[in-house]
Please model this.
Amino acid sequence: MTSGESARILSSMPAHESADVVIVGAGPAGAAAALLLAEAGHDVLLLDRQHFPRPKPCGDCLSPEAGRVLERLGLLGAVEAAGPARLEGWRIVSPSGWSFSGRFAACAGGDPRVATSLSLSRDRLDAILLAGARRAGARVRTGARVVDVLRDRAGRTIGVRARTAAGDPVEIRARLVIGADGLRSIVARRLELVRRPPRLRKFSLTAHVIGIAAADGLGEMHLLDGLCAGVAPVTCHPEMNVVHNLTLVADAARYGAEAAQDAEAFFWRTLRRFPRLAPRLESARLAPGVGPGLLASGPFDRPTRRVVCDGAALVGDAAGYYDPFTGQGIYQALTGAELLAESADHALRAGGVTARVLQPYARRQRLLLGEARALQRLVEVVVSRPALADRAIRRLARAPAAAIALIAATGDLRRARCLLSPAVAVSFLFPTSTEVAA
Ligand SMILES: Cc1cc2nc3c(=O)[nH]c(=O)nc-3n(C[C@H](O)[C@H](O)[C@H](O)COP(=O)(O)OP(=O)(O)OC[C@H]3O[C@@H](n4cnc5c(N)ncnc54)[C@H](O)[C@@H]3O)c2cc1C
Model:
């Protein structure tokens, strides 16, 4: 064997490493789990295939309750120092131009911390979370793509196989593998935890833009047939004034082929079809040097069968996702990480990281997501039918108790079951307040 051949063979042999916990994906779910488990004294290795700051298609709006989770993680100060915009609530505009709005202050119970919500571009937010994980003692490796999970003969997960930024293979053994690797989680797929392929087929185009006239402190969602446009201030840039996040979500069957021809032309052309948005877009353009340009994503419907198995757990989008309309994903990722870290810490100390020991996490995660998913499905039924959306939004404009309950539930301030309360039902069925004109 020549020295060149032996060097080639050696470089294709995986290096071996180990950690107590290997976390795949350093978005909000993975970084928060890494921070908490490292703080609890475990040796944590956090891997991400990308280098940070990295582009992430997102509406950039944290729900009010997410602020309280950031506070518990010790990161709220850093997020506030990064110059986020503050949202006072949301306005939803129907295809015919009817609208209702709800302000968080009306459901914050006097707590000023949740009377507004924060909105900050994901490159900044995720960098803060990652720095928090590093400070807590987690080892962070970016540019490391996980390609498979390692299992022993009994089927128990014992680590991951990855490729470093230089393309070198590496095998990392761990007592617990956490899949926090987002919508198309390789961990969920390799562990056969994905329930089925997506049924709801939508795609999104997201950009940071300047030149949109600022609104009245509210984020906005505009609906049209098979389309939804979200607009919210993200941050105040010293030279460009307000930067907005502009996100278009479209039904893939109807608009996918058109968008594939020229995504940016489709983005602007389609946004100008929204009657109450179009006049405000006349001077709008992509924010130069802010964010990565136009980002595409989808489909989003990614249900999982389970979120734990022997030696592994899923968290964040990897644990299951449905639709971005209600904007709760970051809160669910952070809270899921808190729930998982508690169970995982217990399991690691108890000795065996089995599916049974991780069950409390699975149960609490189901509780966290169950009602939220049901609400998301109900919202999808309504917003995907223009006539129904018109009727519901027109009704909500005259039913403040129902509108506020909806904003509270999607802001994670109340459980979705609050929408079933008699007061909300009466408000919706027998609207009393003056109608808000389209
Ligand atoms: C269009 C759109 C708008 C949205 N708007 C909002 C909003 O306004 N508010 C809100 O709260 N939520 C919103 N969401 C949802 C939110 O973005 C997600 O729920 C959130 O990012 C989930 O965090 P995560 O950590 O689970 O996953 P992610 O943030 O997706 O992070 C996953 C990480 O895993 C890494 N990774 C993936 N595969 C591998 C691999 N093989 N090896 C190593 N690393 C890997 C990725 O690089 C990534 O960094 C939106 C989503 C979309 C698509």
Q: What stands out?
A: The chain has a mean pLDDT of 90. The pocket of flavin-adenine dinucleotide is lined by residues 24-30, 47-50, 54, 56-62, 145-146, 180-182, 186, 204, 206, 247, 297, 300, 316-318, 324, 327-331, 333 (CB under 6 Å).
